[in-house]
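Budget justification aside, the reviewers requested a transparent look at the raw inputs and outputs of the sequence design task funded under Objective 1. We therefore reproduce one unedited record. The lines immediately below are the structure tokens for a 104-residue chain.
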């Protein structure tokens, strides 16, 4: 396991924030580590508000335990998931997710 250099951290943050796709980084306990502006906007939150949430606060198809198990099972191969998510205003949206684990 090698630490990222300062330049790599800056590049990762720039790519994450500028991506046209919504992205969220979750901890194994389901809490939000970081959400990019596109993902937060899709759900009607600010990126800062997202850090106070857990994935089950917006995902409607899975129980908290199912989501915890899915997070534990994620590997670098990734998975494709179709689910429904609740926006801050209460509206629901259908989403397609691709997840992958990242180990440093």
């Amino acid at each position: 396991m090698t630490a990222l250099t300062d330049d790599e951290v800056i590049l990762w943050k720039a790519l994450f924030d500028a991506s046209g796709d919504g992205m969220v980084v979750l901890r194994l306990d389901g809490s939000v580590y970081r959400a990019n502006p596109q993902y937060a906007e899709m759900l009607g939150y600010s990126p800062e508000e997202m850090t106070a949430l857990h994935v089950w606060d917006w995902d409607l198809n899975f129980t908290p335990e199912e989501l915890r198990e899915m997070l534990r099972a994620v590997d670098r191969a990734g998975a494709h998931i179709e689910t429904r998510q609740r926006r801050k205003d209460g509206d629901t949206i259908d989403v397609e997710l691709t997840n992958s684990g990242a180990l440093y």
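The chain has four helices and four strands. The mean pLDDT is 88. Computational costs for records of this kind are itemized in the attached budget.
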